[in-house]
Structure formats: C-alpha cells, structure tokens
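Retro notes (design track)

What went well: tokenization of the new backbones is finally stable.
What didn't: we kept losing track of which sequence belonged to which structure.
Fix going forward: every design gets posted as structure first, then sequence, in one message. First example under the new rule, 663 residues:
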C-alpha cells in the first residue's frame, strides 16, 4: 500500500448511503440535467444563473480571463446588489412577505421585518450614510451583534456603492483597529452592545478604543461612528464623531434610488486570518458574487421562496453570514430566521424552540454546533416538533460521519438530507456539495463540485490523483464569486493562492482532499494541519472522526506535537458527552486507554494517540474552527500564543487546567 492510500484508507469504512427523498426529487429545483448542461457549456450555465438577477445593463462578455489570476465576470454589466435583495421583491408584489424573522436572545424580544419594511429601512440607512459623506467606493466598517441593523447597514452600503467590511463582534478593539486602518474605513457602524449568554455585553467601548488607536496613525480617517441602541447600557459619547442610529437613520427619508454599479464594482472586503502574518482582506465584487450566492442558495437547499423558512445559524461576521444570511437568501426573496444569541440561552433547547415556532424548513449550521448538541443529548431536541425541517446544511469544517448521521436522524427525522458544503471566504459561495434532489449522501463526504465549478485533487506536481487516492484540492477554472484580489495587495494574492500550481494556473485552496473509489470528494482539513508521524502523513480530521465515533466522545481535536522519536506524535484533546459524564465517567486511565485503542482499531496503530487529554472546551474561531495552533502550544508545553481571534478567549485557561489533570 502506498503511503497515501494507507493513511487515507480508514474513510472507506464508511458505507452508509442515503438516497435523496422521493418527494423532494419529484419537484427539485435542480436535477442531473443541470450538471450535464453546465458540463457542456460552463459559461453559458453561469450566464443563465446571472439572468435570475435584475441587471441595469446586460454584460457583453461572461468572463474576462485575459490577465489571470485577475478575473472579471459579466463584463460591461451593471446592477445594484441592494436593489436585487430588496426593492425588486417589493416591485414584484412580495412587499408583505417576511424577509427576516429576527429573534433576540432575551425571550420574546423578536421582530418580523417584511420586504417592504426592509426597503424603507435600507433606504433610510443609505440616506443617513450619504449625509455623513459616504459615497461610492468609500469604506464602512460594521462591528455589530446579530441584529437586523447589521444586514441593513450592509445593504445600505451596497445601495450607495460603498464597500463594507464587517468585523465579527466578538473580536477585540485591536482587531477592529487594524482592519479599519488596513482598508481605510471612514465610518464605523456599531451598537451600544448586544446580548450574549443572557447578559448585555458592550461593543461601543471597544469601538472607542479602536478609534483612539486608529487616530494615532491616521487622525482624520474615521469621521463618524453610527451607533444602534440595542441594550440601552451607558456609553461614552464623543459629540464630534458619534451619532445615534435612531436619530440619523430614523429621521431620514424612506425614499432612495439605488445607483447601478459596474458588475466588478467592489461589494465588500472580509478579513480572514492567515496562518501567519496579518489578516488578509478578501475582496468580493458585485455581479459574480451575487450570481453565485443567489444561485447556490437556491440550488443547494432546493429553496422554494414562497413556502420555505430558511435559517443559517451563524454569525454575519463570518462569510457564511454574508453569503447565506444576507446576500443569497435576500436576492432570492427568502423568508429567513436570524438569531442573536447562543444556543444555550436561556436553555439548551433554544434552537429547537425557534425551529418549532417559525416552522423552519431549511437549517444551515456548522459541525461544531452539531457536536455540541450531540454532547447535550438527543432528549433536548426530542422535546420539540422539528418535522418542518426538510433540508439540512453543514459548513465550516469536515463533518464527522457520526455527527452527520446524528444530524440527519435526530434533527432531520431520519429523512432530511444533509448538504455538506465545502467553500471558503475566498470562494464566496458553495463549491463542492451534494444537491438534495440529485446526490446520494455519504456521511463525511462533500461529494462533487457544484455545477459549473471545476475542482480536482492533485499531487504535489499538480497531476490529478486517481480514485482512492489523496492529495491537494485545487480549483481549475475561474468561478463567478471568486475573490478578485487581497485588498491592496495583488502580490500576496498571487503568492498565496496561485503560485503553488502556477504552471497549471490552478487556484490552491490550502485543503487536503481525497477521491474515494467512486471519485467522490472527502475534505481532510487544512494542509497545515497534516501531521507527519514516523514518516506517515496523517490528517487530523480522520483521527478526530475516529474519536468522535466513540460513544463517550462529543468533540475531539488532534494535533501533531514534536516528538523525539517519531518526529511528531498524535495528541488528542477530547470533550466527553454529557451522558458519559452523568454516568460518573471521568478522565480515568481506563477511559484514556479505551480511546487510544479505539483509534487504533478504527485507523491503525500509527494513528494511536500518544496522549489523550479530556478537556471541558476547545479553542474555536467565530466559525467554530478549532485553533489547533493553540492546542499545539499546550501539547508541547509552551506559552500559549495569540488568542485574539478566538470566539471566547477564556477557553485556553480551562484547557490548561484540564490538561494538567488528565493525560
Ligand atoms: C465557508 C467557510 C474555509 C475553510 C476551508 C476548509 C474549511 C469549510 C468545509 C470545510 C470540510 C466542509 N471548510 N467548509 N472543510 N468540509 N464542508 O468556512 O469559510 O471561514 O474561510 O473557511 O474551512 O478548510 O478551506 P472560511
């Protein structure tokens, strides 16, 4: 057996298969014919997808790839993203349809916003921003909790041709300041605070700090801070800069005519952390981005805008929120749920209460959430009627087969298919995913490239690997929602994504992947997370999935820690399921042995962890990605590194305590 197939063999143990539900197939938005059409004429296919939007001027050319890797899509076309997400639905007679069922964290704090109301508020916000001197090409930073005004501010920017950069509300004032400086934002939209775990937490103080830091370098950059009153907590006020949203926006006219933008006009910059160095400002433009997010949202989830109630349970400060809370769903005229808080406030059944109350039909979330619910136990969702759910989605990480099956059975009633969607901030929209009316689901596999997307798994030389083999994931042809560059840094853009396979002109995604015997794709995590144990390359994902398949384990994170004899050794951090803990199970030596042997049985002796540490939490980013670098610091007994991009920076203290007791 070659090294590659040896280390990747364990995935072929997964033999569960799920056919698409017959009633869904009977009226599916997308069928096999769509794949065939796209394969026959890729650009023609995307052109048809673009026709679902309303354009001012039609494009003359679908794709300009004359100067790779700088793509232009729908060249010569003009449109307004905000108009497409809001006004056109009102004009089509759907003004009374709810666009957003907003659910605040405090119970009974809700708002239903129709498309007509959304149009009024977006127009008002556009007028208010415009009065502050924000115009086409200006940058606006948005640092907000999950409230409707976040989406409204984004759409108001799009309406004016201003470029937004949303900074996750959990990030520090440093993170905000560096992003404001990097992109040159002149206005910051924020709120006094938001609700998190049952209590109001402040945002404005962090903005004040950030503004002061920015002023040290660029005194005249930030000219206004627009503040939504959400919690009513006291805030410091600077009369020169600060303006209340309810004054400026509330007092503005509801009439605003959106301007047509060039298809390639920048829509937003979203910062994403690089493994090293400063965050990268991913630039997305208007026409291609909106085409792909709207079309994939409609196709991947089989969306029926008249009847579905759609919920992406994620933060708008993550690309998933941009593409599948704001732009995709609204461009399709969807009725969505938007939830402000955490899943366990005030109780662990909050999500399921929301699903039941609003009759949610499509739910899209991250595997980390699913594993948390598994940990809490199936009896919690069982208390609610979840029968409205018909399609489920997963995003952000590989979904462990065990979590997939649990999601399908416990949340989806054993019938709702799971769409495991692989994509990135950089790709803008879905790239590899099953489609609910076409694909047979395999737990743990993202299956095949979306119609019109060309992806491959290649070896180090860029040669496609055969079925049953693993390698690196590349995208071989440009796609509409691709990032156009890194903000202000074309060189880093070329270097980061296009230099690895420059000869072939492939986009290097940075993920490892495997093609199974049927040629279906399995994502294996970031290439940087691959370990090398005694010369064997192993994916952290696979060992984690093996651990999670043990009935007592809810979550697992695996890192390769330096080891004198083997180069690297497998170190595992696990969170036990609540049922195991309730049974009095502790981090006993017996349990640790059992888990080590379990991995050996599932994958092989080479993967058996040197160390298993039982911990109460894992360090995660805003999108639920485990920050293995920090765990590596613990495993290698080092001072823990930078924690500023953690969703909860106190987690590392809990882990350090935990790791000292059980290893
Ligand atoms: C949308 C998003 C991108 C990275 C990506 C990959 C991982 C996302 C995945 C997945 C396996 C999936 N990832 N979805 N891995 N299966 N379905 O997450 O964007 O935050 O930029 O992260 O996330 O490693 O390269 P972003």
């Amino acid at each position: 057996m070659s090294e590659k197939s040896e280390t990747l063999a364990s995935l072929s143990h997964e033999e569960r298969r799920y056919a698409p539900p017959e009633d869904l197939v009977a009226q599916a938005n997308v069928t096999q014919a769509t794949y065939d059409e796209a394969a026959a004429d890729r650009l023609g296919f995307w052109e048809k997808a673009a026709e679902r939007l309303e354009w001012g001027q039609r494009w003359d050319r679908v794709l300009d790839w004359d100067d790779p890797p700088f793509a232009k899509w729908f060249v010569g076309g003009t449109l307004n993203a905000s108009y497409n997400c809001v006004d056109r639905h009102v004009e089509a007679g759907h003004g009374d349809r709810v666009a957003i069922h907003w659910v605040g964290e405090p119970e009974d704090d809700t708002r239903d916003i129709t498309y007509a109301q959304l149009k009024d508020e977006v127009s008002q916000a556009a007028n208010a921003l415009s009065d502050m001197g924000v115009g086409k090409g200006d940058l606006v930073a948005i640092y907000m909790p999950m409230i409707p005004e976040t989406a409204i501010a984004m759409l108001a920017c799009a309406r004016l041709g201003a470029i937004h950069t949303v900074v996750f509300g959990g990030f520090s004032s440093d993170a905000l300041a560096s992003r404001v400086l990097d992109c040159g934002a002149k206005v910051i939209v924020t709120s006094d605070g938001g609700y998190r775990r049952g209590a109001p937490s402040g945002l404005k103080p962090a903005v004040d700090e950030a503004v002061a830091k920015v002023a040290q370098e660029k005194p005249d950059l930030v000219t206004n801070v627009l503040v939504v009153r959400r919690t009513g907590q006291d805030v410091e006020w600077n009369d020169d800069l600060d303006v209340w949203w309810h004054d400026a926006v509330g007092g503005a006219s509801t009439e605003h005519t959106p301007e047509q933008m060039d298809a390639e006009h920048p829509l937003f910059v979203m910062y994403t952390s690089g493994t090293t160095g400063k965050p990268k400002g991913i630039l997305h433009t208007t026409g291609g981005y909106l085409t792909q997010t709207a079309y994939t949202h409609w196709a991947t989830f089989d969306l029926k805008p008249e009847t579905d109630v759609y919920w992406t349970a994620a933060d708008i400060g993550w690309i998933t929120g941009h593409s599948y809370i704001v732009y995709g769903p609204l461009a399709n005229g969807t009725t969505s749920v938007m939830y402000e808080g955490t899943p366990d406030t005030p109780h662990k059944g909050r999500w399921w209460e929301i699903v039941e109350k609003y009759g949610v039909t499509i739910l899209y979330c991250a595997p980390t959430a699913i594993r948390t619910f598994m940990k809490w136990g199936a009896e919690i969702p069982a208390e609610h009627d979840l029968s409205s759910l018909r399609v489920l989605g997963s995003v952000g990480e590989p979904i462990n087969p065990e979590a997939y099956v649990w999601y399908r059975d416990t949340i989806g009633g054993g019938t709702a298919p799971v769409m495991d969607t692989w994509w990135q901030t950089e790709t803008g929209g879905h790239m590899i995913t099953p489609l609910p009316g076409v694909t047979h689901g395999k737990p743990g596999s993202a299956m095949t490239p979306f119609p019109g997307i060309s992806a491959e798994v290649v070896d180090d030389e860029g040669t496609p690997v055969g079925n049953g083999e693993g390698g690196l994931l590349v995208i071989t042809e440009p796609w509409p929602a691709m990032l156009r560059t890194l903000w202000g840094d074309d060189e880093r853009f070329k270097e980061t994504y296009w230099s690895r396979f420059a000869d072939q002109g492939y986009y290097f995604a940075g993920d490892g992947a495997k093609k199974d015997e049927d040629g279906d794709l399995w994502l294996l995590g970031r290439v940087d997370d691959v370990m090398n144990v005694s010369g064997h390359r192993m994916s952290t994902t696979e060992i984690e999935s093996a651990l999670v398949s043990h009935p007592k384990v809810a979550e697992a994170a695996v890192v390769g820690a330096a080891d004198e004899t083997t180069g690297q050794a497998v170190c595992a951090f696990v969170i036990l399921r609540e049922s195991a803990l309730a049974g009095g199970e502790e981090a006993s030596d017996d349990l640790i042995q059992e888990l080590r042997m379990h991995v050996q049985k599932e994958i092989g002796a080479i993967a058996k962890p040197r160390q298993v540490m039982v911990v109460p939490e894992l360090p995660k980013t805003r999108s639920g990605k485990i920050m293995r670098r920090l765990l590596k610091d613990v495993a290698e007994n080092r001072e823990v590194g930078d924690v500023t991009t953690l969703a909860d920076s106190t987690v590392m203290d809990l882990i350090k305590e935990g790791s000292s007791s059980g290893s």
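Added context from the reviewer: The chain has a mean pLDDT of 93.
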